[in-house]
Design goal:
6% helix; 9 strands; 1 helix; Porin
Length: 172
Amino acid sequence: MSIDWDLENVEPPELPRFEFAFEVRLRFTRVQNIAQMPSGAGRGAVYVDSGEFRGPKLRGRAVPNSGGDYALFRPDGVLAFDARYMLEEDDGTLILLHNRGYLWGRKPDTMERIRDWIFRGGKPVSREEYYLRAVPTFEVTTGPHDWLMRHAFIGIGERREDGNLIRYYTVL
């Protein structure tokens, strides 16, 4: 069965719009690594030690020791991350953040330089040299912050020596 598309009479799609929601600054000081698995990949774990978040509708802290990021270091040089941790809003509301995404270098040596910077005290790597994007989902009790469970978000991140800074945007 084939579909006959009449592309001349198709309206152009609506372009997505984004609105800044909040940013999260996380610090990780504890790191564990499974360096080389039979698949050729490696697995890293970093645990949330501290952090804070703020935005037009949210403000609070990352709950220490509430989770971490379990990144897969793929053989193709891409780091696929899968993070879960709790945020606590200033009003006491707990928010579970589940963050998945990718970090990869825009040049062949970027990821090695990032590892050297983070793990061996090397020179910092500029955010223009890598791609760090996240797709978060949230779990929160019914109330003033449950809007987090009704929207799609995209995160644009920066690697820092002791953690990450991710700015989240609501897809409108």
